[in-house]
User: What shape does this take?
Amino acid sequence: MISTHLPVLQVVLPLLGAVLCAMLHRGNWAWAVALVVSWTMPFIAGSLLLQVVADGPISYAIGGWSPPWGIEYRVDVVNAFVLVLVSSVGAVIMPYARLSVASEIAPERQAWFYAMYLLCLCGLLGITITDDAFNAFVFLEISSLSAYVLIALGRDRRALLAAYQYLILGTIGATFYVIGVGLLYTMTGTLNLVDIAGRIDAIETTRPILAALAFLTVGISLKLALFPLHVWLPNAYAYAPSVATAFLAATATKVAIYLLLRFFFSVFGVGFVFDTLPVTTIFLALSVAAMFGASIVAVFQDDVKRMLAYSSVAQIGYITLGIALANQTGLTGGIVHLFNHAIMKSALFLVLGAVFYRIGSVKIQELAGIGYRMPITMGAFVIAGLGIIGTPGTAGFISKWYLALGALEAGDWWIVFLLVGSSVISILYIGRVVEVVWFRPVGEAAKAASDPPNSMMIPALVLVAATVYFGIDADLTVGVAAQAAQTLLEGLK
Amino acid sequence: MDFLHEIAAHYNHWITIFLMVSGLYIVVARGNMVKKLVGLSLFQTSVYLLYISPGKILGGTAPIISDQFEVYSNPLPHVLILTAIVVGVATLALGLALVVRINEAYGTIEEDEIFAEDEDE
Assistant: This one.
């Protein structure tokens, strides 16, 4: 009965919830709707994941039009894992959102914030679950347009500028994506990804297919903020409302990475993308540049939110490194890091949101000694920060461990040194904050601060606990990620 | 001659490429935020042509099954582009709304002047 319709409910519920939020027009009511909807999502995603792990891929024909003519929603281990990640982060942030949004956004705009939040969630889940290339574009634009609005709702006027710049670059990225899909469609006559994958072998060396791959790669790379296409990201994350930053940092770029994985591995195939074309070399170079370039820039940021945004660019470099290695272990590392980084980074941004809630700033000079006033909050920052560095016992270590093993397996031992080197730089920027927060006398700005109310503290602590839990018992994440990597490497054919 | 023939035969693609590149050029080269959005729209419009023009088959008819016709044009690209046009309009509307807000906040829509204002802070 209802269980057969889970794939479509995953997308339709947030869509309807968004409309409801917009009509309610009262901040608290809209929040209640968003809370209920976002808490339903992980249960749907979780049961889909359990189903696909047990019985293999689920295919759902929208409106009863059977694929490849109709739009197909197809769930396998790879996207079920991403669905669980996106919906869980979306749900954990929601209880936190009420106070944070109430303090950062004007009352008449709060309902719109929740409407946009749910719309963005709908778009991200839609990109992940659909098996139709054009449908993915529509969801990409749904999630992007709502993300621009979420960012523009920030208090600083620079949020408007950041949203505008993101809109320009995001639209260029999405348009590149449609150009790629258009070329694929002209050559294969189908939009269903499984169907395209079946037809592409015979024509894969033709020029339109090469052009399609190039357009898709650049377009999606803009969306996932691959170095040097990341310029929209730091300002967008720095000036967006705290809740929006925590949500987007954990989900938007991750879903774009999923889309790239889908096209590289499932549609075009490992042999073509990584063996025939120099994609490995290009992605290795860009990943390493991100890991070092963005990390070094992060060290010199005074706005801690902006610093973590640059750190995100660096961490995305680790994930694309795993993609570039394109072997079982490396890809597992990349997918695990996709999950782990989402958890750690949203934890850090939630902590910063709590600081902003108390003192109205996240400038590093105003945070002096705030650890003594907000001990639990800043303790959480330290633990999640250790995760970003990749200390053993945290989730960040697990992903770096698998990436290093994958690099050795590929015979690129020098990558292991680069991984360690980049981690050392992350010690610098996390350490800089820790030093100011814990080892300086309490500053003027921090005097009146205290730990935030439980509704904000608990979501942050849940994510920090997950950082530690998945660092000690990685069977669950690594197990699913390994299965996802295997599915990707085998391809759809 | 062959070369010229080749170019003429694919004239629809040349128009597409011209619109695409000029749109992208305007986005990059102009500092005025409204002009950038105009360029962005031009860029998106070129994609409509990329989809629609291969959908037409010479001598093909509308896709209504009939004994008299055997060759049909593909209707799907039109439907896809109808969606893409809606997306393009929404993007342009949101972009212009942001420009209005930026004008209210900064008093200008020239990018270099806005950056200069933020530098001063």
Observations:
- The radius of gyration of chain A is 21 Å.
- The longest helix of chain A spans residues 328-359.
